[in-house]
């Protein structure tokens, strides 16, 4: 997350691990920007890749159905 004043809150600066600490507990303020990496981190092997691909397909189908049946 990049604050409007230019400061950065990053999971890499956190010593408590990837999923805990400042980035997830920080409140968004006006002007803040959330950066989401395009590629997922390599933390789970092929099972993680399968989960991500399945979630992407499911969300695409849900959006298509929502568009067709408003």
Protein traits:
about 70 residues, about 0% strand, mainly alpha, single chain
Q: How is the biggest beta sheet arranged?
A: none
Helix/sheet category: mainly alpha
| Broad shape | flat
Number of H- or I-type helical stretches: 2
Report on this structure.
It is a single chain. The protein folds into two domains: 1-36, no CATH class; 39-70. The model is unreliable at 17-21 (pLDDT under 50). The longest helix is centred in the last third of the chain and has 24 residues, at 45-68. The protein has helices at 22-25, 45-68. The chain is built from two helices and no strands. With 70 residues, the chain is mainly α.
Summed up:
The chain is an all-alpha fold. The protein folds into 2 domains: about 1-35, no CATH class; about 40-70.
